[in-house]
Amino acid sequence: MYAERPPDPDLAGRVACVWHLVSETEQTQLVVPDACVDLIWGPRGLFVAGPDTGPMPTSMAVGDTFTGVRFRPGAVGDFFGVPLHELRDRRVPLSDLPFPTERMEEAAPRAGARPAAMRAEVRRRLAATTGADPAGSAITRALREGRTVAEVAWQLGFSERQLHRRSLASFGYAPKTLQRIVRFQRALGLARAGVPLAEAAVTAGYADQSHLSHDVRRLSGGPMRRLLSPARRSA
After folding, report:
1. Helix, coil or strand: residue 39
2. Of 9, 72, 93, 108, which residue is most buried, by most CB within 10 angstroms?
3. 194: three-class secondary structure by DSSP
């Protein structure tokens, strides 16, 4: 069972959702890149997930429970106390980071804990740390439109080196990698909404359906049909 709920209004600028997953079978959950970073409470405690550049299969036992806070792309800031690229393609225990874990552990949504305590602690930490680069959303939009990195840098008034530095700091990715991931996610969203794959490919900025299929395999490890079910980015 998987469910998402929107964040509290005052967190919506940086948090995409709060989600909860209970594994009803022994399974391997496939997590694909989405430019997001998650703070997760799982069977082995608190950890950070992402940002990913490829598929991340996650083994789950029956009854395993996960609760996560998903940050919007580019909105993590220095919440975790380390450069975001150091978390890329990793699952890192929160205790391994320069992060004040005691209050967050007390707020973890285990038996007897109140979900409100979790949200309050995330809110407190967000208020105490530097927020997102204000150029982050503009970088994402421009890259999603299919422009080259040089064109995006010129459009936003950056040098290519500045764009690279800001993209790495905000997303954990170089601009070309970020572009590939946001384009993939846009095509996936269209396909899940019932848009034919050839149309989804062109709308998302791919040259054709074959180009889309190649990127899907590179980013998810398999064909698009395997992904055309309700989206889950859990552990």
Report:
1. strand
2. 72
3. coil
